[in-house]
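Here is one chain, start to finish.
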Amino acid sequence: MHQYDLYGIGAALLDTEIEVSDEDLSTLGVEKGVMTLVDDTRQQQLVDDLQDHLITARRACGGSGANTVIASSYFGLKAFYSCKVAADENGDFYRSNLGAAGVDYPASLQEADGGTTGKCLVLITPDAERSMNTYLGISEKLSVAELDQEALASSRWAYIEGYLVSSDTGRQAAITLREQAQQAGVKTALSLSDPAMVQFFGEGLREMIGGGVDMLFCNRDEALGFTGTDSLDSAAEALRDYCLSFAITLGADGALLWDGTQLQRVTSPEVHAIDTNGAGDMFAGAFLYGINREMGFTEAGELACRAAAQVVSQYGPRLQAEQHSELLATVI
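Its structure:
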């Protein structure tokens, strides 16, 4: 009997979303469309420079892995999340958000250390692209100490956020989690997370994957960069060396899925995209819900595409709780 359907690990970040122009990005020196790690001074400088934009800012408990795990919980999975927050207001806010979403977490999260809870400044341009400037804060010290072996061993799936590769202790925690999961017969999934992670930390991601994971999530740019190929077909072939199955998200073009036997294409509904932040996270959360509930890859992929399309059509990296049940009503 499994206590949890999904055990996730990732950074705990307080997201602040701000609408900006491409000119703003250029003036601020922000690289568009990727996640850039910054120190506290740089992030505060960006906030100061954007003071006139803060009136429309939105704050949310985030981090890629958390978005995925929370989505899976709202869809109906029993979920657990390992992360690290500080003993500050943002840490309190983060724990409260996890609990409100029905996600369990290690006792160590209540025993927060000094320092600063991680923060991510998400800049949204009119074309819906998100450019992230992340100060990891105490999340940079996420380590094997935050793992809960008992919860992991009683889970069906373990989900690893690829952003952990940028921290030495986080990368080791991810590797240890994968090894412990495989020893316990728990299926493993990993997201490549961001083109910048693939570009600058490709070898570390390969260490996290080890001999292979059961499921790999990535977008087109990450797939091409990680495999060093120049076509989607070539990337799809090369990815099979790292996983038993995968999903390559293609934005408005849906997704390409490999179920271990055959490639499948699923389409995405046409929507007016205003904010792509969290789209890949939502796709993974919905997909993991689907395969946990015995959906086939096509059905799970269609649900995931609809969920991601809903996310990009509104602001914020996640949906409201009731929107998950509305999406499920379309497939049940």
